[in-house]
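Hey, quick one: can you model this chain's 3D structure?
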Amino acid sequence: MSPNGISIATTTWNETANIQKLIPTIRNTLQRIQHEIIVVDDDSPDGTLQTAKRLADVAVTKTRQGQTKGLLHGMQLAKYPIIITIDADLENNPEHIPDLIQQTAKYDVVVASRTKLPRISEKIAPKHSANS
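Sure thing. Here's the predicted structure for all 132 residues.
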């Protein structure tokens, strides 16, 4: 592992259009920070891997096993000690990454929450209690 940099890991499944937006946005956001972008594709049939190979620093495919295993694989490929995971579906704003990086100076683990920035579906979906 290289000590000075940030690894960004994401998993994809049919995300060609999204990563064409996501990766340049991450690069722009981190232009003054040494970083790498890792894409772990879940064997998408839409050409996501080929697009990722063009745009990301590391792009690999694996048998379709879902997001959690994909992120774990991406973290194992990371060359920097700070690893940030991000959804490829553009629901996480890459512009928040510098804030997360800043928090790593104080904490060993930093978790972004959607408490203040919920998904639109979370805003409009009815909330049910366990007793409903």
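One thing worth noting: The two ends are 50 Å apart (CA to CA).
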